[in-house]
Amino acid sequence: MPWSNQSGGGGPWGQRGGSGGGKSPWGSGGPQGNGNPPDLEDILRRGQDRLKDFIPGGGSMGGKGIILIVLGAIAIWLLTGFYTVRPNEVGINMIFGKYSSSSGEGLRYNYPYPIGRVIKPDVTRQQRVEVGYRSTATGQGRPRDVIEESLMLTADENIVDIDFDAVWQINPARPQDYVFNLQNPDGTIKSVAESAMREVIGRRNIQAILTTEQASIATEVRQIMQEALDAYGAGVLINVVQLQAARPPSEVQQAFFDVNAAQQDAVRVQNEASAYASRIVPEARGEAARTVQQAEAYREQSVADATGQAARFSQVYEEYRKAPDVSRERIFLETMERVFGSVDKIIVDQNGQGVVPFLPLTQGQSQPPQSQNNTNQGATR
């Protein structure tokens, strides 16, 4: 119940200075019963008495016991130097803050703290640096564009908006370089990546950047980044550079697309013309070659015929000079043979006796008389 400051109360601990039950928070009237604070020397003396109870011999072996305690403490301290390195880690051993060695996976040992220290970086974890944009924390939704990083100048004095990633990891062969030489790994790698990309973009035209050379750009940027980081002694491996977007600035994007469409139409028309020329020109060349060959063949034939006719005429002329009458008669007969050889002939008697029947000799030779056939059959029998 609530205490009362009446006679016999004396506050929550009773009557001060009373003989019966006046108490303070430390007991009856304080540690000594007079309301004074506790005696520190008494507390220390009691602590020493309790420590003697734990020492072997109850204090009779004072010096040896202290030595055993110190040796035990040293042994426990030395045992704290054992550590385990996981398969994805490399142990960086330091002594008084200076690098001493690296250790692989398994149970290892180094001097305990504060003499030694061990840092175990993860050398297999793939880390990503975003340049030109920032993705959302959940990975969903539209990323935020960082204009001061993404806008770059091309070789033909155009501006292109580039967003890309650089995927990196700690070099397992030189993890100490990463630990001691890089104070801000993400910031350093992002700066090197942006610088390398601006260098590569500055050597190319915008049309090639947006269409055909994105793979070569990523490869060249990765190579430049790796060379720069190796020169810094960063202890970092650049695994891949991925272009997320390559586009003209949003302010001129529509105009650029119109120009690009017009250029593509021009290229298409040129390709169609080239295809037509590739089809027509060989055909025209083949037709010309065929005409030339026909003309050459006709020329050779005509020359050969003329040469043969001239030779025949020369031979006939020589025979004519030897016997003019005979040659003239022969020429006349050969001419008549050529003229009347292929026409039907009717002979008219000049004495007026009428038409004389004409039996072609060729017809008589083609069909032998019946009597001759019978004679031949009888002879065969």
TrEMBL record:
SMART domains: PHB (SM00244)
Residues of the Band domain: 80-260
Record's protein name: Protein HflK
Any single GO CC term annotated in Swiss-Prot or TrEMBL for this entry: membrane
Location relative to the cell: Membrane
PANTHER family (alphabetical): MODULATOR OF FTSH PROTEASE HFLK, STOMATIN-LIKE PROTEIN 2, MITOCHONDRIAL
Function comment: HflC and HflK could encode or regulate a protease.
GO terms of molecular function: peptidase activity
A Pfam family matched in the record: HflK_N
Species for this entry: Microvirga guangxiensis
Transmembrane segments: 66-85
